[in-house]
Amino acid sequence: MTHALELRGVTKRYKEVTAVSGASLEVNRGEILGLVGPSGAGKSTLLRLIDFLEPPDEGATLVGGQRVLFGSAKAALVRRRTGMVLQRPVALNRSVRNNLAYPLKIRGVDDEQIFKRVDAELKRLGLADRSAKNARTLSGGELQRLCFARATIFDPETLLLDEFAANLDPANVAMLENQLKSYITVGGSRAVMIVTHNLFQAKRLCDRIALMWDGGVVEVADKKKFFENPENPKTAEFTRGDVVY
Amino acid sequence: MRLDLTLDWLDLADVTLLSLYVSGMATILGSAIGIPLGTLIGLNEFGGKGAVKTITYTLYGFPPVLSGLFVYYIFSRAGPLGDLGILFTPTAMIVAETLLVIPLVTGITITSVVEVDRNIKESIRAMGASTSQSTLTIMREAWVGLLMACMVGFGRVIAEVGAAYLVGGNIDGKTRVLTTAIMLETRMGNFEWAMALGAVLLTVALCVFFFMRKLQERELL
């Protein structure tokens, strides 16, 4: 079976520090893969490598079974088909409406289509009354909702989420998680990878979970196995909450 | 009463307009070169980038008279572009003053685009922007700084006298601008006129900067 996404022995170094070390994993179509691990384990870096925001020092990234090189035309195309929410949500210095329109504009969608979709999405997000305000005036929760919508409004094939619901109240978390669930069910061809510190969230949302430790992927398993019968002692230690950061 | 080589009120309007024209054109041209150049330097990594930045910042202090001298040589009869016959015209003044604007605008642009939050830059790329789309979006994010670059550029040339005098020649009705007129009136002992011209110069600058500051404060939506 061809995986939506596959990493083979990917390594990323920043001078003396090895952020990601020989990481290998696959994400299948129609699944949500969770990436958990202690702070500084390399989860966010791995996500950035998958989105071709940074070049790896070693290893290969395969998309739809084909190797894609950083900086190639194919990598740019993959990035265009990938939605990403970064760990620290940020808004462009423009209105809420134009922030949401931005991903569509850079993809050459015509204005009429753009604002039809944007206005419908703003209504769904409960931000319609704030649409003309500068997005930097939004509250933390509103901004996170906006960033999630901005990453999905162009119907990406792959979605990469880095702590996409961190610091939100339960109602907002539920709202985003429901949106994520409806996103993944469309067509069965989409793939999602989420980085989270919240093991309950990983349990709620993910089909499989990977543990990153010290830059490496130490275990990838089905959710049930990951929590109940992990192979690697580190996984057991981590899920029990015994990890000393 | 009007003396030769001194100003009357009609001349004052001409001199003021020419000042605005020369400084405005130099700012526009200098910004048209400096903003893309600064963005290119600021957003890309290449060998010798530190040296390029140091040279750019050093040129902030480039003496106007040297810029004038350079342009004078280029456009003088013996110079490589002497055939164009533009020495002692507003065009030569614009060229000399553009050379003064470029380093300032380039340097401030470098700082402005570099200062755009790294997270915003990454977010723009993560949304799928191509290199050119990303660059334009970062420039928009750095809007306040880029406008500041233009303001500083304009401030430099509206108050400049050395280059304007050297390549313009301070010819009455042709290349006389506010600063060269102030110099002339002072030399002739017409201090009241010189002071009045100074006030006009400051008023012109005040109006331009007021307008630019209003632009700068505008919320981009």
| Quaternary organization | heterodimer
Strand content of chain B: under 5%
Number of helices of chain A: 9
CATH H-tier superfamily of chain B: MetI-like
Under CATH at level 1, the class of chain B stands as Mainly Alpha
- Low-pLDDT residue spans of chain B: 1-5
Q: What would you report as the Rg of chain A, rounded to the nearest angstrom?
A: 18 Å
* Biggest chain pair interface: A-B, 26 and 20 residues
Q: Can you tell me the CATH class of the domain at 5-87 and 158-166 and 180-240 in chain A? A: Alpha Beta
Gap between N and C termini of chain A = 37 Å
Count all strands of chain A and give the number: 10
Mean pLDDT of chain A: 93
Give Rg of chain B in angstroms.
20 Å
Poorly predicted parts of chain A: none
Helix content of chain A: 25-40%
What does this entry look like structurally?
- The complex is a heterodimer of chains A (245) and B (221).
- Chain A is built from 9 helices and 10 strands.
- Chain A is an alpha/beta fold and 245 residues long.
- In chain A, strand 9 and strand 10 (216-222) form a beta hairpin.
- The radius of gyration of chain A is 18 Å and the shape is globular.
- The model of chain A has no long low-confidence stretch (mean pLDDT 93).
- By secondary structure, chain B is an all-alpha fold.
- Chain B has one domain (9-216): MetI-like fold (Orthogonal Bundle), CATH 1.10.3720.10.
- The chains are: A alpha/beta (245), B mainly alpha (221).
- At the A-B interface, helix 2 and helix 3 of A face helix 5 and helix 6 of B.
Which tags fit this structure?
heterodimer, A: 245 residues, alpha/beta, Rossmann fold, 10 strands, B: 221 residues, mainly alpha, MetI-like fold, disordered N terminus
Summarize the structure.
The complex is a heterodimer of chains A (245) and B (221). By secondary structure, chain A is of the alpha/beta class.
Secondary structure blueprint with pairings:
The complex is a heterodimer of chains A (about 240) and B (about 220).
Chain A: E1 5-14, E2 17-27, E3 32-36, H1 43-50, E4 58-63, E5 66-67, H2 73-80, E6 82-85, H3 96-105, H4 111-125, H5 140-152, E7 158-162, H6 170-185, E8 191-195, H7 199-205, E9 208-213, E10 216-222, H8 223-228, H9 233-240
Parallel strand pairs in A: 3-8, 3-9, 6-7, 7-8
Antiparallel strand pairs in A: 1-2, 1-4, 4-5, 9-10
Helix pairs in contact in A: 3-4, 3-5
Chain B: H1 9-43, H2 49-58, H3 64-75, H4 90-115, H5 118-126, H6 131-141, H7 143-158, H8 162-168, H9 178-187, H10 191-217
